[in-house]
Specification:
The chain has 451 residues and is an alpha/beta fold. The protein contains 14 helices and 14 strands. It has an eight-stranded parallel β-sheet with strand order 2-3-4-5-6-7-8-9. Strand 5, helix 5 and strand 6 form a beta-alpha-beta unit. Helix 3 runs antiparallel to helix 11. The radius of gyration is 29 Å and the shape is elongated. The two termini are 34 Å apart.
């Protein structure tokens, strides 16, 4: 593929120097370089790839971590591999997946197992789904966290949402407290959500704050007074693309400097919260590849160098979610890297899609073996052989007397070969009958009309 690319020299220079290209390149990525540990990948920019890079990026792509993305959303079901490839190419070395119920938790776990090191997930029940919770859902989530501890970063997204759930406030509080208790028991962080329920949310947190080690408040959108109370509770603040919004993000931009620097992380909350400072035309949805624009806007608000802020938020994310430390990232490539197409990753992705039911892959057809009237089936271990009645009698007697190697030699002397693993035994009459039926079906088929 690289040899066929029209700008081979430019591509190689981009890969070896880890430099950004403002001009789009036509190249069928992704590609992998040895310096990227685990499943971190680099993709050559496509026709609209430049939109994901802010102007503040000079030559190097800084490493950043997306601390919250809803990749279980149906908007990602058809192009998950492309979405992740774009994210990794934008410098997003790892993504924390958001779960809202048992089903999304199971989906995210499967995704994490196919992208080890690059993806981790939180497991829990969102306040907007508490009415659909079954009695043993939390027990199952607990089993998942224990079984897949290297893929699970915390409990969540959990909390209170009175804007979308006014009728079940008591149930929301109960489920939230149960998950706080679970996080305390398993010694993992809480991935929290609050909307229109500040007072009850803070009261609930205060009850359990001493038991829960770390708390991330996802997509903070509160006031200055609420911010100060959250700072007293020593929570981490997840900053999203809402700070790029002219109306909804105006008040946030004025108070971001009050947040302690060691408590700031960034996330996309994809497919929501698109950062509207990107170049037009805007993408139809938000995705992890858009995270550099959140970083860019936050750097302007905090009056920090974008590369220093990237290192700071990445370090904070790793301290918050200890499981992220299993993956490392190198922005500098070796002088002579080996460039290769990631066929292995494609195979993994295809297997994942098959498991999730997104693709229907045809099973290989069994081999038809014709059995003659005087033949019988003889079985030795896992292999089957077609033999005559006399041969079968001899083999059955010798099978008990001699060892395996001698018996295999006997099969060779008889010129017997094992049948294919995936086979169907049919007589000549059955084969003939089946071919006649196939011919009849073929004749009945009407030829397709040309458009």
């Amino acid at each position: 593929l690289l040899d066929k690319a029209p700008q081979k020299e430019t591509i190689l220079k981009c890969v070896t120097e880890q430099t950004l290209l403002r001009t789009p390149l036509k190249f069928p990525g992704p590609i992998l370089t040895p310096s990227h540990v685990f499943s971190f990948r680099v993709t050559i920019p496509g026709p609209f790839y430049h939109m994901f890079f802010p102007e503040s990026y000079v030559n190097k792509i800084p490493e950043i971590i997306d601390t919250g993305a809803n990749l279980f959303n149906k908007q990602f079901s058809k192009n998950m591999r492309v979405t992740l490839s774009r994210a990794f190419s934008s410098g997003v070395s790892q993504i924390v997946l958001i779960s809202v119920d048992l089903a999304s938790t199971e989906f995210n776990i499967q995704l994490c197992l196919n992208y080890p090191g690059s993806l981790v997930t939180v497991a829990g029940i969102h306040p907007t789904t508490v009415s659909e919770v079954k009695e043993n859902d939390l027990d199952k989530i607990k089993e998942i966290v224990i079984k897949h501890k290297h893929a699970v970063a915390g409990i969540g997204e959990c909390g209170l949402d009175y804007e979308k759930g006014k009728d079940n406030k008591e149930l929301q509080i109960k489920i939230f407290e149960d998950q706080l208790q679970l996080a305390s028991e398993l010694k993992v962080p809480i991935f929290a959500h609050e909307r229109g329920a500040f007072d009850d949310f803070v009261l609930t947190l205060k009850k359990h704050r001493s038991k829960v080690d770390k708390i991330l408040l996802n997509c903070f959108t509160g006031t200055k007074e609420q911010l100060e109370k959250y700072i007293e509770l020593d929570v981490y603040f997840g900053i999203t693309g809402i700070i790029c919004s002219d109306d909804r993000g105006a008040h946030l931009r004025d108070i971001l400097e009050l947040i302690p620097k060691n408590r700031i992380v960034i996330g996309t909350d994809a497919p929501y919260m698109l950062p509207f400072i990107m170049k037009r035309p805007f993408p139809r949805r938000n995705e992890p590849a858009c995270l550099p624009h959140v970083l860019d806007q936050l750097a302007k608000c905090l009056k920090m160098d974008i590369y220093e802020l990237a290192a700071l938020t990445t370090r904070n994310a790793r301290e918050l979610f200890g499981v992220l430390e299993v993956c490392s990232f190198s922005g500098h490539l070796p002088s002579k890297p080996e460039v290769q197409v990631v066929d292995i990753q494609k195979k993994v992705d295809d297997e994942l899609e098959a498991k999730l039911g997104n693709t229907k892959k045809s099973q290989p057809k069994p081999t038809v073996v014709i059995i003659k009237p005087d033949q019988l089936v003889f079985t030795h271990k896992d292999d089957k052989y077609l033999v005559t009645e006399k041969e079968k009698s001899v083999l059955e007697k010798q099978q008990q007397k001699i060892d395996d190697s001698s018996f295999l030699q006997l099969l060779t002397d008889f010129e017997l070969k094992p049948l294919p693993k995936n086979h169907v035994l049919m007589t000549e009459e059955e084969v003939k009958k089946k071919s006649e039926e196939a011919e009849k079906k073929q004749k009945k088929k009407k030829p397709k009309k040309k458009c």
